[in-house]
Design brief:
about 280 residues, 9-stranded antiparallel β-sheet, 4-stranded antiparallel β-sheet, 1 helix
Length: about 280
């Protein structure tokens, strides 16, 4: 028979062997190495442009971005102290010694920064807008025809002729492309001088919405005295009010090409009615 003390030795030895066969320590903590961060390149992700820290194959820290529903490869950044170097031994991070005496750089917000920069032009905010469509208005002024004996004597009052469906001053504005320039279409100025001499002219020009300036001309202007026709032309200018969609501070000034001393001048205004 086996004595009790020998039996005790056998049992103790068996327990020692069983204790040595315990589950193996996880690989990621063996030797104090840190768990690799990040995802395998090509692994699916949900949020575009999402950035997360990752560990490069050489152990350096890096970052990867979610693009086209998949994680990119890890973009590496050389740490301040290269892992395994002599300078890194005994270094510390966040006040604690790094296992193995090797320092590693953490992935900070600077990893997400881009070198791209934008220069934004500061502009004053403006209210309202320029409207394309139909405008109607009025005008007034004085005129000195070529038949007056005294040269450059402008004493004859002029005023619009407003008829149903045909106002004395009207034009349409059409946007040019996708810009802020509007071109005049169907511009007409119909009036009367001294209540006895009707005249008419076409309006041609454009509105610069950004500058809120109206730069146009009266062309093909004419009036009759008896059988004789007299022609005139000249600038037709104004400013645009974006809030009221109207033209303000308008001025006109014309001369007769055949008689440079003859002509007239006055003011005008117009407002937007409909598209």
């Amino acid at each position: 028979m086996i004595s009790s003390w020998r039996m005790s030795l056998i049992v103790a030895g068996a327990l020692t062997l069983l204790g040595g066969c315990s589950e193996e320590e996880p690989a990621q903590t063996r030797g104090g190495a840190a768990t690799p961060m990040g995802a395998v390149s090509g692994t699916g992700c949900a949020l575009p442009n999402l950035t997360q820290p990752c560990t490069c194959p050489n152990g350096w820290p890096g970052s990867q971005v979610c693009s086209a529903s998949a994680w990119s490869t890890c973009s590496c950044r050389q740490p301040a102290v290269v892992p395994g170097s002599a300078a890194g031994r005994g270094a510390s991070v966040a006040g604690g010694a790094v296992p193995g005496g090797v320092a590693s750089a953490s992935v900070g917000p600077e990893a997400n920064r881009s070198a791209t920069r934008f220069d934004w032009q500061r502009t004053q905010p403006s209210m309202g807008s320029c409207e394309a469509g139909h405008y109607e208005g009025t005008f007034s002024g004085i005129y000195g025809p070529s038949i007056i004996v005294v040269s450059d004597l402008k004493v004859i009052p002029v005023f619009p002729i407003d008829l149903p469906g045909s106002p004395g001053l009207q034009f349409d504005l059409a946007r040019t492309g996708q810009g802020e320039v509007f071109t005049v279409q169907n511009g007409k100025m119909n009036g009367n001088a001294l209540g006895a001499f009707p005249f008419t002219a076409d309006i041609q020009g454009s509105l610069d919405c950004e500058k809120m300036t109206f730069d146009a001309k009266l062309i093909n202007g004419s009036y009759f005295i008896g059988p004789l026709e007299y022609r005139f032309e000249g600038p037709f200018l104004g400013a645009y009010d974006k809030q009221s969609h109207s033209f303000v501070n308008g001025t006109w000034k014309v001369t007769e090409p055949d008689y440079p001393t003859a002509g007239g001048e006055g003011d005008w205004s117009a407002r937007w009615l409909h598209n």
